[in-house]
Amino acid sequence: MPSIRNTASDVPDMNLYKLNRVHRMLDKLKEKNKWEAEDTKSFDCMHYLGDSAIETAAKSLGLQAGERVLDIGSGFGGTGRYLYRHFDATTAGIELQKEIHDIAQTINEKSGAGANATSTNGNFLELDPAKMGAPFDHIVSFLCILHIPEREALFKKAHSVLKPRGKMYIEDFFARTSLDAKTLEVLRSSVSCPDLPDKEHYIAELDKAGFEVTDWVDMSTIWTDFVHERAEAYKKDPSIDADLTAFYDAVDEVFSGGQVGGTRITCQRK
Fold first, then answer.
1. Cα distance between residue 69 and residue 138, in whole Å
2. Residue 173: strand, helix, or coil
3. CA-CA to 77 of 20 to 30 Å: which in 21, 111, 180, 197?
4. Beta-carbon neighbour count of residue 219 at 10 Å?
5. pLDDT tens digit string along 86-114?
6. DSSP secondary-structure letter at 75?
7. pTM, two decimal places
8. For this UniProt entry, which residues form the secretion signal (predicted)?
9. What is the rounded distance in angstroms from the CA atom of residue 94 to the CA atom of residue 201?
């Protein structure tokens, strides 16, 4: 695969991260003292298939009450709050974008999660493990790794902040076939994804970093349907920002082309 370097500054330009719709929702909640999960559900889930994906992650990890989870690319913190409410686990989120981190912290405080679901603003590759709260029992990462070009460094650091035999659960894109120039252009310009490995290369990357892949679930067909239905639905909603619909259209395009797929990976530190 070609070596493409992408910088953190590219990520905020993605249409997904233009937050007009989020601020409109938050404005409606200003007078409410205690926020419930339903209050922010329309925007704080940034992965596919809603809460069922988090349930799958928890089951795959064998998550137990009291365990500590690191969420790489935690967004608005919805995953951590869900794991606290339903599994009594503590989650430390790492979020690169300052504005999204600030919103996550506000929701954490308003929802009463306290220290059980937190957000740290920064680049996972640069943060001190002690500041993150390492070591962790588990790591989760939903639709984040596709944006990070330094994959080898990422997986090595993930390995280093896990406890012995700790597990990692990933939901991510991968290349089902060779990516043509058009698909790569859409990924890079509209999705902030520099490139994608195929299944063999992905597993090899994890193995090299010290992980044993125990489960690889190909979600390509299900996700292709999901992103297409989402794109079509958002086009019909006049309240949705045009920037966001453009992003969803781009994701729909690369999946419907058959070259990009999705996976759920469970792996364990060797």
1. 5
2. strand
3. 197
4. 19
5. 999 999 999 999 999 999 999 999 999 98
6. T
7. 0.92
8. none
9. 26
* Coil vs helix vs strand at 9: helix
Widest CA span in the chain? 51
Spatial neighbors of 45 by CB under 8 A, at least 6 apart, are 51, 78
Helix, strand, coil percentages, rounded to 5, for the chain: 50, 20, 30
Amino acid in the structure at residue 20: N
Cα–Cα distance measured from residue 167 to residue 183, given in angstroms and rounded to the nearest whole number = 32
pLDDT digit string (tens) for 136-169?
999 999 999 999 999 999 999 999 999 999 999 9
Tokens found for residue 1: 């695969």
Coil, helix or strand for 197?
coil
CB atoms within 10 A of CB 242: 11
CA–CA gap between residue 270 and residue 258 (Å, rounded): 33
Beta carbons within 8 Å of 16's beta carbon, 6+ residues apart: 46, 244, 247
Question: What would the DSSP string read from start to end of 59-86?
Answer: HHHT--TT-EEEEET-TTSHHHHHHHHH
Q: Determine the distance from the C-alpha atom of residue 138 to the mean position of all C-alpha atoms in its chain, rounded to a whole number.
A: 15
C-alpha closest to that of 15 among 161, 259, 231, 222 = 231
149 burial class (0-12, 13-18, 19+ CB within 10 angstroms)? middle
Two tokens, residue 184 = 């790569």
Predicted confidence (pLDDT) at residue 122 exceeds the cutoff of 70: yes
Give the pLDDT band of residue 241 (cuts 50, 70, 90). confident
- Say whether 113 sits in a helix, a strand or coil: coil
Compute the distance between CA of residue 205 and CA of residue 29 in angstroms, rounded to an integer.
43
